[in-house]
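step: validate -> pass
step: tokenize input -> pass
step: predict -> running
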Amino acid sequence: MKRQDGKPRLFSFTLRDFLIFAAIFICALVLCTLLRRSDISDGFASPVFVLAVLLTSRFTNGYLFGTLAAFLSVIGINYIFTCSARLPLLLLFLFLPARS
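step: predict -> pass
step: emit ->
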């Protein structure tokens, strides 16, 4: 979409862009849920949601849905690693060097 002065709008909202965003994000959630149930490894959530942000930014116009996808991906990754019942579904291990 363009403004009256001819410049493109950065945060434009269209139904087409919203449907693309919703379809990609729902597919990412379903894929993570299926992978979590079928495999014991926990390294799949971050790449799936990064790919969802990449695809959303590529196929939508403006910055609105790419930014929204990035924020919701952080929430989605946190949901995959932690459960609402306060039990960890997946574990993320960080190793810090030992001090002597």
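step: describe -> Residues 15-38 form the longest helix (24 residues).
step: cleanup -> pass
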